[in-house]
Amino acid sequence: MRLFLLPISTKQSLIYCQRINQQLTKEKTYIDKITTKAATTWLGWEKHEKGWQKKITTYGNKLFQRLPYEEWGLKSIPPLSARRKSDELAGKEKIRIEFPESFMKQGAVIERLEYFGGKEKIAFHTKWMWGSIIGMPISAPFALIPIVPNLPFFYLAFRAWSHWRARSGSAHLEFLLEKKLIDLAPSSILDKVYAVQGIGVSLKKLDKEVENIKTPSSHSTALDEAENPPATMLLSPSDGRLIADYLEVPEMEQEIERAIHQVEGALKAKKELEEEKQAMGAAHKGPEAKGQ
User: Fold this and answer.
1) Tens-digit pLDDT profile for residues 150-171
2) Do the beta carbons of residue 91 and residue 183 sit within 8 Å?
3) Which of 141, 146, 166, 261 has a Cα-to-Cα distance from 120 of 20 to 30 A?
4) Calpha distance 248→85 (Å, rounded)
């Protein structure tokens, strides 16, 4: 099993698992069969040029893009079955995690792994898994509507499954950490990719520092940022394919792009909110200054 830890920004990371021996696994669980059938059906609906099937897949794919990237990453880690646990403890299946050492020291890697495989993550997905399961019977009356499938029920069923998979991935990671079964494997390939991006990040940081020096009013803000620097993007949208190609893991491209899109959007929204607060504060001080 091959794990990857990819810094998306200076404060957010994506974890992803490539199951090296997945092609060799002949036995499929009942859930695996249902998942395969659902994926096949979805792909079939996507091929429709029009109709309710096409509309459902169009809106559904937009919804999938909004689901947390951390959840998708944890879902890539397989559930811990009895056989897998035995193989991992016996050393039959090696687990390593690759990361760009020039941007993440080993201590930071362990810290992020403990976050993804922590009890808080497991409890979070357990809570929402049961929430989705409880909501499924409530959506049953929608089945009385003819022609169109019971979409609320299927959505809640998907969310229940999704949270279960994320919870299982987090629990598996927790087991690997407790048993110290993960080998840290710094990646020279990732180092080179991040080094190129790091040049742009450094130039942006330099521009910001120069701007703060030139603007006296921003001195206090600069001091706050020095003590608690804001998150900065480390990857751009085009890096998803680049990393996936270099690592020869094509299925990871979509996950990287999703993570970049979500983190970039969150940082942009946070920046706009802060600017709005600063503008409101300046407007509020204006009348006070005139009154004095």
Assistant:
1) 778 888 888 999 999 999 999 9
2) no
3) 261
4) 27
Residue 38 — pLDDT band, cuts 50, 70, 90?
Answer: low
Tens of pLDDT along 8-25?
Answer: 998 999 999 997 755 445
- Torsion, CA 52, CA 53, CA 58, CA 63, rounded to 10: 100
Which ranges of the chain does DSSP label H, i.e. alpha helix? Answer: 30-46, 52-66, 69-75, 82-90, 106-116, 119-138, 151-178, 188-214, 219-227, 239-247, 252-291
Q: Around Cβ 205, how many Cβ atoms within 10 Å? A: 13
Locus of tokens 């959840």: 71
86-116 in b/e form (b: 16+ CB < 10 A) is: eebeeeeeebebbbbbebbeeeebeebbeeb
At residue 37, what are phi and psi to the nearest 5 degrees?
A: -65, -45
The strand pairing partners of 233, in sequence order, are: 9
| Cα distance between residue 36 and residue 107, in whole Å | 38
Tell me the two tokens of residue 224. 């706050």
Number of Cβ within a 10 Å radius of residue 44:
11
Contact of 15 with 5, CB cutoff 8 Å: yes
- Distance, CA of 209 to CA of 212 (rounded, Å): 5
pTM here is 0.79
